[in-house]
Structure formats: structure tokens, C-alpha cells
């Protein structure tokens, strides 16, 4: 608990320690890989990016399953009903054709993990290679082969938007500024790779799939559909999940194979992905080209914005969001926090012979923000304006604000957060220091990134996308038992965010007990109401709202029962410190006595009904968090290396339920954003072979590379969510690439560098320096 | 299947007589043959450090060792860190400083830091960052891990 917490009377708002921690710090966490199985499996994966399978030769005596054996298993076929979407089939095991390196072709079953791997190595694949498409631009080039026959031009989702009168505004502008952005491929890289354990129960005939997923209920729906069993025959458990960051929200074909195998063999089977598999075959993200043009008035006002977005979505479309998630989010949210009425965009998702793409922390907005904030800096330079001034002239300041694409922004603080960050940065002082340093051939730079982060949105937002499945709502079942303990069963399913603690704080305030008396149950389809899991910065907002509603219902009943027991009006009762107290008197009852009466003296409350169990659901329209990231970097022009000197985040996520947890989320997000800006990249060669197959090649940053992050909080309480909280899980990852790449460009301004690519590796910085002609 | 070898693993003071293939990693043997699943495996090629345990007091990647190499040696894992139900100062500090989120890398960080602080109690703050850079965390951004280890180091020095 931090010092200022003593002033807070509610549990909400306090940095209490996490209830998740004791098990995790003593080795008693329960992860998927901790379960023993009767059989182990290993996947045989395609060594090439593109080709036709001519023959699969199996070692004698081995149990190996191929597509031909998966009789009755349907291919994954994610659906979208808009945006010229072409559905393509994704077979659980490659069916005659391989479309990316690492695609599962066969599955080996053996008595141990080692044996399964040995046998997998002996399976011989004869594949007739065909020319692969690796790059999105190449895939839409003339004469490019089709990755899927259903989509001859390789574009499987396409959206266009143009506001009325756009052309007139465009031609009236004083200055057109243009940036070409390239955001390379990244891997979300949870420390725990994927893993699944599927067990057949010979008594009930049911299968329990324990797997590392962010959305157990939707996994149950999807897998039961594909395998052809009633949903009630499948139980999905997401135990402790060792990080997900979006990568574990999409359906993974391997889990379907495991369930099918458990059912076929009538025993338990397990698979744990190794790091190489995770790097080559588990959903990637970010791979986009964006051309962004701004039409500016001479005073720096942005009049119109025109974007072209090309997203490489890999070989298949992911379930449930579909591959539209990156290009269409770019189209909907490109104007970001800036007031611009005229907008045009053409966004496409393109299939290639690369690993499928899926949502990853920030989803498209790291790229949007990089493009927009590069545009702002470039426009400032072109129009001889200060980098802060140009933003001041364009940030949205009146709310609610309806964007050019129809999004309604609730109360936010774009301008205020930027001013806080700018003041902390001390730009005049920095400019002096920068000038002094340059005399000694040291190159410092500052960068800003201001952004809006759409969070906690419900079914209308997903319906607008035309999704076959519209997630959004959450249900919470909440019970106080006769001993006064509370259990909240939630459909959301966290993977490390501390949601059990956060929700317990919300409940504790309502029913007057310590959060330690509240247990939050999640991640088990048998124990929790149907829900959509944890993604899109939604859980604290949506599950939090449903929890608040359910807890208020229990509170209401507690007050009525306590009122009768204490012979007082329920309005005169307060619930706090584990007691129901009559205000202004010394009359009270412990909450557990009230709870016991609800169950065991129900004859006194027949009008209220027995017990203390309530259910509530919540489906909000959504809200927008915002932040400004400000950074100082130093670029070593000899090595191309970048060192981050200061990193500032001025963040506004509405009401902070647990500031300690909120800051932890920001730290982690920024670290992934720094990784995106400077280090991490999945590299394919021209044959579609991945060159970054170990953590020694794919460079996740360590404690050396991540600086201390200075956080300033603003709390603009939104009226659009029940808890007044906005989601914040992704913001850190959104702002960092733009702020850092802007700072690198500022540092290298004496060389007239234009670097518009993430990650800005030493090699790319060096190339840019050499191309500038001003460095030798 | 390869022929198995009898090995004695001494984990947190308890003797485990197991029969393993010579190629079985120490991490797998600790987890699967000895049932101590607190030690995690994140990469199996020695970069992430999630599998770090102490062998004769020295932090080691248990994914890069074979179980047969640890025959008879004293191994400490996260399960042995708390004594008599009392949390180790590092465990307490990780909780107090929010030094973990998903918790998957945490056992590795705890064992790494334990090994270092026991051998070098007066280690400087800068050197600690250096040491901690040998393990990867994907959730916390490291800041709170560093804070936690520094806090624990101070407490261990003063106790």
C-alpha cells in the first residue's frame, strides 16, 4: 500500500498486493505444462513456405496422424460479413498443400515427449516446392501466384472510406505532407509457450482440455464445432497462463488436434510448444505498410488525412477476430486523437506464405500512432513549427467528439497529458543540452507520441465490423456464502494482469468485507458463466462493470436483511469493515451473521428469496484511454545503437482501481513497445524461411535495455463505464515505437535522416546515415 | 528409447532416486521425475532463464544441463526458498514491489537473485541490473523486478 492510500476509504483506488502472488512466488502456480499425460505428441511441421505434399513417409510402427486421418474434423474458417471478406479454409493439419514454414503437417503420438520428437524427426515429407510470397507488396503484384485458390488476387479483406467533400478540402490545403511507414513483424513472445493437455473421461465421455488460452469459452465453442461434439462434452480450463499479450486469444489448430486425439485414443495426451515452434508457427503481428498523407493549412491545422494500409496477414485468417483486425482497425482509428474532419483510407489484408497474423497488444495502433506521429513531426518541420505546437493545434479538446469514422470519444485528456509530459521533459533545457552535446559528436533527440486507445468495447463495436461472433458482453455470477465469504465467477480469463485482485477490490467496497474474503474464479468453462475472456483491454472495464452490478445486487439484499435484523431502515445501514452498522449508533452485526440469516433464516425474508447469489451482465459501448509518451534518446552514430535516457508516460485511464497494477501494466507495455521500436523482428528470407528461430536471434530486451519509466496519472472519470475506469493494458505498447522513432529522427536531424521503420535497428540507422550523404 | 541411468537428485534437502535417459535435461527431471513443477521452461536453449535453479549454490540453467550431470549435487529450487512457511525476503519483496505479473519467469528470477545475493551481499545496484539481464521477463518491464531485488538485498544485509 502506498503512502497516499491511507487517505482513501474505499478499496478501489488502493495499491493492495495481489492475491495471485503467493502461489506464483512459491512454485505453486499451476500451468498447463505441469500436468502429466499418458501420451505425448509432437508436430511435424513444414520445412518450406509453399508447396504441394507429394508423400508423407512414416517410420514403421509409429503412431502418426495426418490430415487424411482427421476424418470429420472441419477446417477452421473464420467469417466476416463485410469488407469484401473472402473466407479461406485453414485445415487443422496441412491438407495436400503447405502455405508457411512451420505449418503442422502431421502429429506424432508416443509414450514420452522425447520419443515423440524422435519419431517426428523420422517422418519424411516429400514436398514439391512452389514459389512463395513473403511480402505483402509482392503478393498484390501483377502475376503473383494465389496463396489460396478462393482468393486469386491474395487480398482477402478490403475496406475503403472517404468522407463527403474530401477532395475539396484536400485541394484547398497549403501543404501536403507524406510519410511511408514500415512496421516489421513481431512476436508477442509470452514466456510460457502454448501448451495443451486433453484428457478423456471414460465415465462421462467428456474431454477436459487444459490449455494456455485467453478465451476458454470461445475455444470450447470453436473446438467442439470443428471436432463435431456437443459443447457440453468439452470442458476447457485455462489455468495460470504465462502471458498471452493477444497471441493466446486466437484458436490454434494444434489444440483441435489434441482434443481429437484424446477422443480417439480415450486417454490423456499433451503437447508443449517449444520456443522454436513459438517463433516460427505461433501467430505473429504488426507486419504493415502504411502510406499516410496529411493536408495541412499554413498554420499547421490538419485539414485532411489520407491513408493506404497494407497488412500482411500471413497464410490464414485467425479465429475469432479474423485477419481484418489489423487493417480495419487502422482504417477506423487512423485519425487518432487529432481533430480532422476529412478522411480517406484504403485498407487491405493480404495473404502470403508466412505465419498467420493475429492480434497482439496494441493491435494496429502501434503502427497507426507511428504513422500519425511521424506525420506530425514531418509536418512541423515542413511548416517550421514546433513539434509541441503542431500537436496543440490539432488535438481534440471538446468531448464527446465524433470522429471522421463515427467513433464517439468520451471525456479524455489528450492535450493535458501532452502538456504534463512536455513539462516533465523540459524541452528548452533539453534543446540547450542537445546543442552542447552535438559539439562533442553526441546525438540526443526527443520524441513525442500522443494517442487514443479504444478500450472496453462491447457488442455494437464488434457487430459494426461484421464479425460472425460478436464478443463484448461479460457475465458475473457472484455469491456470498453463509460464512460471509464471496465467490465471483467470471467469464473473463486473465493471463497475468492481476484481475482477481482488481475485481476483489470492487466487490469488497460493495459488500463491506476485506478483499481477502473475495475469491474470483476464472478460466474454467465448467465453473464460470460463458464469457469472452481477456483481450482488447476489456476485463477491468467489462468484467469489472458486471462484477460491480452483481455485487450491488448482493449489497442491496444484505442491507435489507440487516435492516430487519437490526430493526433499522436499510438506507440507514452501512457495510464496512466486515460489519453491517446502523449509521450514527453502535448497533451492528458482522456481515457473516447477515449472510447466515439469508440462508438459514429465510423464513424471515420470504419476500426477498433465499440465499445471496446474484448474476449480472454488462455490455458497454466502449471508452477511450489516452496517453502521451515522451522520450529522450541518444544515438551512437558510430554503432547505430540507441540508448534511452528518459522515458515519460502521462497516462489517463479513468479511475484507477489498483494504481500499482495499472503501473505494472504500463511498464510491461512500454517494454514491449521498446522491443518493437528497437530490437524485435521476425526475419524471413526470400524463400519464406525464418532466420530468427531462437531467442539469441530474435532479440527480446533485457533489464539492460529497458529504462526506468516515469509515470504521471490523470484520472478523467468516464461516464461511459460503470466503474469509471478505462482499459489500459495495451497503451504502453502503442506509444513507444512512435515516440522512440521520432526521437531518433530528432537526434539525427543534423544529418537530415528520415527513418520511418520499426524496429530501428543499428543496421537501419547506419543505412539511413549513409544514405543521408551527410555522414561519413 | 535409450537406456536409463539411475541418478540421485538432492532437491531442497530431499533425496530423489530417479531413473532417467542420459539425454534428459535437469529441468525435465526436476519437473517430471521429481514433481517439482515450480521450475519453468521457457526456451530450452539457455536464453530466457526461466529454468534457473541453484546447483551447489550457483545459479544454473537447468535446461542446459543433463540430469546425470547433477547426480549427487545439492539443488535448490523455488519450492525450497520459503523456510517453515516464512517467505524468503526476495519472495516478500517481489510481492511488495509488484515484481511479477503472469509469474512464469518468477521462479527463475528468484533463484538467480538468491544465488547472487548469497554470494555477493554487497553487490552494487548497477551490477544487479547486469546480473538480472541474464533472465527474460515479458510482463513487468523489469523495473519492479530490479526494485524488488534491491529491496531484498538491503533487507538481507541488515538482518
UniProtKB/TrEMBL annotation, chain A:
Keywords: Molybdenum, Oxidoreductase
Superkingdom, natural source: Bacteria
Pfam families xrefs: Ald_Xan_dh_C, MoCoBD_1, MoCoBD_2
InterPro entries: Ald_Oxase/Xan_DH_a/b, Ald_Oxase/Xan_DH_a/b_sf, Ald_Oxase/xanthine_DH-like, AldOxase/xan_DH_MoCoBD1, AldOxase/xan_DH_MoCoBD2, AldOxase/xan_DH_Mopterin-bd_sf
Single GO term (MF): iron ion binding
Name used for this protein in its record: Uncharacterized protein
Organism encoding this protein: Pseudorhodoplanes sinuspersici
UniProtKB/TrEMBL annotation, chain B:
PROSITE patterns recorded: 2FE2S_FER_1, 2FE2S_FER_2
Alphabetized UniProt keyword annotations: 2Fe-2S, Iron, Iron-sulfur, Metal-binding, Oxidoreductase
Pfam families listed in its UniProt record: Fer2, Fer2_2
Alphabetized GO MF terms: 2 iron, 2 sulfur cluster binding; metal ion binding; oxidoreductase activity
UniProt protein name: 4-hydroxybenzoyl-CoA reductase subunit gamma
Organism (species): Pseudorhodoplanes sinuspersici
Lineage of the organism: Bacteria, Pseudomonadati, Pseudomonadota, Alphaproteobacteria, Hyphomicrobiales
Amino acid at each position: 500500500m502506498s503512502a497516499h492510500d491511507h487517505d482513501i476509504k474505499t478499496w478501489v483506488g488502493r495499491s493492495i498486493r495481489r492475491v495471485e502472488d503467493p502461489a506464483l512466488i512459491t512454485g505453486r502456480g499451476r500451468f498447463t505444462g505441469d500436468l502429466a499425460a499418458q501420451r505425448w505428441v509432437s508436430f511435424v511441421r513444414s520445412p518450406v513456405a509453399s508447396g504441394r505434399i507429394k508423400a508423407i513417409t512414416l517410420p514403421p510402427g509409429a503412431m502418426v496422424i495426418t490430415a487424411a486421418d482427421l476424418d470429420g474434423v472441419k477446417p477452421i474458417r473464420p467469417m466476416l460479413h463485410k469488407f469484401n471478406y473472402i473466407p479461406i479454409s485453414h485445415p487443422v493439419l496441412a491438407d495436400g498443400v503447405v502455405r508457411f514454414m512451420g505449418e503442422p503437417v502431421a502429429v506424432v503420438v508416443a509414450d514420452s515427449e522425447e520419443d515423440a520428437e524422435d519419431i517426428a524427426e523420422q517422418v519424411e515429407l516429400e514436398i514439391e516446392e512452389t514459389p512463395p510470397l513473403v511480402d505483402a507488396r509482392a503478393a498484390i503484384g501483377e502475376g503473383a501466384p494465389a496463396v489460396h485458390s478462393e482468393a486469386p488476387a491474395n487480398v482477402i479483406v478490403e475496406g475503403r472510406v472517404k468522407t463527403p467533400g474530401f477532395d475539396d478540402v484536400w485541394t484547398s490545403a497549403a501543404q501536403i505532407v507524406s510519410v511511408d511507414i514500415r512496421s516489421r513483424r513481431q512476436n508477442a513472445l509470452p514466456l510460457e509457450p502454448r501448451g495443451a493437455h486433453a484428457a478423456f473421461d471414460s465415465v462421462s465421455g467428456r474431454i477436459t482440455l487444459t490449455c494456455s488460452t485467453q478465451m476458454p469459452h470461445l475455444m470450447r465453442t470453436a473446438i467442439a464445432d470443428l471436432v463435431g461434439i456437443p459443447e457440453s462434452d468439452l470442458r476447457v480450463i485455462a489455468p495460470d497462463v504465462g502471458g498471452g499479450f493477444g497471441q493466446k486469444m486466437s484458436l490454434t489448430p494444434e489444440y483441435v488436434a489434441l482434443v481429437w486425439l484424446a477422443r480417439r485414443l480415450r486417454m490423456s495426451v499433451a503437447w508443449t510448444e517449444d520456443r522454436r515452434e513459438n517463433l516460427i508457427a505461433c501467430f505473429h503481428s504488426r507486419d504493415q505498410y502504411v502510406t499516410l498523407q496529411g493536408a495541412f493549412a499554413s498554420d499547421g491545422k490538419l485539414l485532411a488525412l489520407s491513408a493506404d494500409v497494407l497488412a500482411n496477414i500471413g497464410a490464414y485468417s485467425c479465429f475469432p477476430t479474423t485477419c481484418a483486425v489489423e487493417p480495419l482497425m487502422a482504417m477506423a482509428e487512423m485519425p487518432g486523437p487529432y481533430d480532422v474532419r476529412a478522411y480517406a483510407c484504403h485498407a487491405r489484408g493480404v495473404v502470403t506464405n508466412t505465419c498467420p497474423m493475429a492480434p497482439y497488444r496494441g493491435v494496429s495502433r502501434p503502427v497507426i500512432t507511428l504513422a500519425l506521429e511521424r506525420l506530425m513531426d514531418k509536418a512541423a518541420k515542413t511548416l517550421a513549427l514546433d513539434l509541441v505546437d503542431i500537436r496543440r493545434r490539432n488535438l481534440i479538446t471538446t468531448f464527446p467528439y465524433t470522429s471522421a469514422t463515427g467513433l464517439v470519444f468520451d471525456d479524455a485528456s489528450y492535450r493535458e497529458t501532452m502538456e504534463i509530459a512536455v513539462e516533465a521533459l523540459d524541452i528548452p533545457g533539453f534543446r540547450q543540452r542537445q546543442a552542447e552535446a552535438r559539439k562533442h559528436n553526441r546525438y540526443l533527440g526527443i520524441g513525442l507520441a500522443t494517442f487514443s486507445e479504444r478500450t472496453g468495447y462491447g457488442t455494437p463495436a464488434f457487430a459494426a465490423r461484421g464479425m460472425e461472433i460478436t464478443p463484448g458482453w461479460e457475465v458475473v455470477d457472484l455469491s456470498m456464502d453463509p460464512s460471509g465469504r464471496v465467490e465471483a465467477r467470471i467469464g473473463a480469463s486473465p493471463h497475468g494482469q492481476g484481475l482477481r485482485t482488481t475485481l476483489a477490490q470492487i466487490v469488497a467496497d460493495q459488500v463491506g468485507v476485506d478483499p481477502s474474503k473475495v475469491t474470483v474464479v476464472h478460466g474454467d468453462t465448467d465453473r464460470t458463466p460463458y464469457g469472452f475472456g481477456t483481450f482488447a483491454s476489456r476485463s477491468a472495464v467489462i468484467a469489472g462493470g458486471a462484477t460491480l452490478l452483481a455485487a450491488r445486487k448482493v449489497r442491496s439484499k444484505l442491507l435489507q436483511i440487516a435492516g430487519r435484523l437490526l430493526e433499522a431502515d436499510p438506507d440507514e445501514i452501512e457495510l464496512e469493515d466486515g460489519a453491517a452498522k446502523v449509521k450514527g449508533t453502535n448497533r451492528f452485526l458482522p456481515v457473516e451473521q447477515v449472510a447466515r440469516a439469508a440462508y438459514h433464516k429465510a423464513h424471515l425474508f420470504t419476500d426477498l428469496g433465499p440465499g445471496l447469489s446474484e448474476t449480472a451482465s454488462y455490455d458497454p459501448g466502449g471508452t477511450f484511454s489516452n496517453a502521451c509518451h515522451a522520450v529522450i534518446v541518444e544515438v551512437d552514430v558510430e554503432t547505430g545503437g540507441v540508448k534511452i535516457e528518459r522515458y515519460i508516460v502521462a497516462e489517463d485511464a479513468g479511475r484507477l482501481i489498483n494504481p500499482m497494477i495499472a503501473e505494472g501494466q504500463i511498464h510491461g507495455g512500454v517494454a514491449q513497445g521498446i522491443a518493437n521500436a528497437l530490437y524485435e523482428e521476425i526475419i524471413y528470407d526470400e524463400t519464406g524461411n525464418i532466420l530468427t528461430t531462437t531467442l539469441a536471434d530474435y532479440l527480446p530486451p533485457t533489464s539492460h535495455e529497458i529504462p526506468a519509466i516515469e509515470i504521471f496519472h490523470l484520472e478523467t472519470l468516464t461516464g461511459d463505464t460503470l466503474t469509471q475506469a478505462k482499459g489500459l493494458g495495451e497503451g504502453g505498447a502503442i506509444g513507444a515505437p512512435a515516440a522512440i522513432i521520432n526521437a531518433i529522427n530528432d537526434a539525427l536531424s543534423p544529418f537530415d535522416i528520415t527513418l520511418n521503420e520499426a524496429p530501428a535497428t543499428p543496421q537501419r540507422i547506419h543505412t539511413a546515415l549513409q544514405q543521408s550523404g551527410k555522414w561519413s | 528409447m535409450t537406456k536409463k541411468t539411475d541418478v540421485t537428485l538432492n532437491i531442497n534437502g530431499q533425496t530423489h532416486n530417479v531413473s532417467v535417459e542420459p539425454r534428459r535435461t535437469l529441468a525435465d527431471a526436476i519437473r517430471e521425475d521429481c514433481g517439482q513443477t515450480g521450475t519453468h521452461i521457457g526456451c530450452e536453449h539457455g536464453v530466457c532463464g526461466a529454468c534457473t535453479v541453484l546447483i551447489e549454490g550457483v545459479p544454473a540453467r537447468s535446461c542446459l544441463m543433463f540430469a546425470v550431470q547433477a547426480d549427487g549435487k545439492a539443488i535448490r529450487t523455488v519450492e525450497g526458498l520459503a523456510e517453515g512457511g516464512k517467505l524468503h525476503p526476495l519472495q516478500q519483496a517481489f510481492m511488495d514491489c509488484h515484481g511479477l505479473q503472469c509469474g512464469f519467469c518468477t521462479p527463475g528470477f528468484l533463484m538467480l537473485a538468491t544465488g547472487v545475493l548469497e554470494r555477493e551481499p554487497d553487490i552494487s545496484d548497477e551490477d544487479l541490473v547486469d546480473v538480472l539481464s541474464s533472465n527474460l521477463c515479458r510482463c513487468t518491464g523489469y523495473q519492479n523486478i530490479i526494485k524488488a531485488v534491491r529491496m531484498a538485498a538491503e533487507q538481507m544485509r541488515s538482518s
